[in-house]
Design goal:
The protein is of the alpha+beta class and about 200 residues long. It is built from five helices and nine strands; from the N terminus they run αβββαβαβαββββα. A seven-stranded mixed beta sheet has the order 2-1-5-4-3-8-9. Helix 3 links the parallel strand 4 and strand 5.
Length: about 200
């Protein structure tokens, strides 16, 4: 699966200047990627069939990732990395929630998403979300993200979804605290989360 290029905003955040080191030996640049332009309102359906908005996530940090269940590599790899990172965090440091937003509403029903996120190694505290095309486009726009269907008749699934594959860490007020690329190492993610207090 190919991922779309990083948005101009994400690129700007990646090259942001470093800040002084914290007590945790995290990459200082992880503390300089915040933005109040990322987030936005949305209304989607959870894997439990409940209507969920961004308000449901306020009060606790949340890792947000766009993907889909037929994704052959980037999505499961990323979710396994997040599961590993969260398991590395020390006791007493709050772990953020994880939200997977599916960009494949045709196949990713709430039931299919529920089965998918039950995979061993994924974050244990994960919510999967879906919606119709308009709802998903609204959610993606709030994250400066994009997705598109790509026909692949030679594949077993028939088509794939190209999508932005950034991992967004939203703070308790649903503003971007930092972000990670899909190739970020679990230990680096864990150190950054710990430096931010979970």
């Amino acid at each position: 699966m190919r991922s779309t290029p990083l948005t101009a905003l994400a690129t700007a955040l990646l090259v942001a200047a470093c800040t002084p080191e914290t007590k945790v030996s995290a990459d200082p640049s992880c503390l300089t990627r915040s933005s109040d332009k990322i987030g936005g309102p949305f209304s989607l359906i959870s894997h439990k069939g409940e209507r969920i908005t961004e308000a449901n996530f306020r009060g606790r940090k949340t890792l947000v990732f766009f993907g889909f269940t037929y994704c052959p590599d980037v999505c499961p790899q990323t979710l396994y990395s997040l599961g590993s990172a969260l398991s590395m965090m020390p006791e007493g440091v709050p772990r953020p929630l994880t939200a997977l937003i599916s960009v494949d509403p045709e196949r990713d029903t709430p039931e299919a998403l529920g089965r998918y996120i039950a995979s061993t190694g994924f974050p244990s505290d994960i919510v999967a979300l879906t919606g119709d095309q308009n709802e998903l486009k609204t959610a993606a726009a709030g994250f400066a993200a994009s997705f598109e269907r790509v026909e692949d008749p030679d594949s077993q699934s028939g088509y794939l979804m190209n999508h932005t594959s950034i991992i967004y860490l939203m703070d308790e007020d649903w503003r971007l605290k930092t972000f990670f690329t899909p190739d970020a190492r679990p230990e680096d993610i864990a150190r950054c989360l710990q430096a931010m207090g979970g």
